[in-house]
Design goal:
The chain is mainly α and 90 residues long. It contains three helices and no strands. The radius of gyration is 17 Å and the shape is rod-shaped. The relative contact order is 0.18.
């Protein structure tokens, strides 16, 4: 499970880096650092009471992928706007 978790959580970091290189902001999405910390902290607190920690990990993975989708759409919109205004990267 660890390799899959690493793959899931590495995608948002890679996307964030690539949008910074293109000169656009990709800081949107529901899965910010504060939310991730809150979810995993909740899972660690509730795990001793019988709540499976896997649920929180799945929630983190879903939020990460939703954030990736939101950032892709946001960056795409910004780049299309720059192109429409005469910005060309070639």
């Amino acid at each position: 499970m660890l390799p899959g978790t690493i793959l899931v959580f590495s995608q948002p970091i890679e996307l964030r880096f690539s949008d910074m290189l293109a000169g656009v902001k990709g800081d949107v999405g529901i899965g910010s650092r504060a939310e991730r910390v809150a979810v995993i902290a909740s899972g660690l607190i509730l795990a001793p009471f019988g709540v499976p920690l896997e649920w929180f990990i799945y929630l983190l993975a879903a939020a990460a992928w939703l954030t990736v989708l939101q950032r892709i759409l946001s960056v795409r919109k910004q780049l299309l706007g720059k192109e429409a205004n005469g910005f060309d990267q070639r």
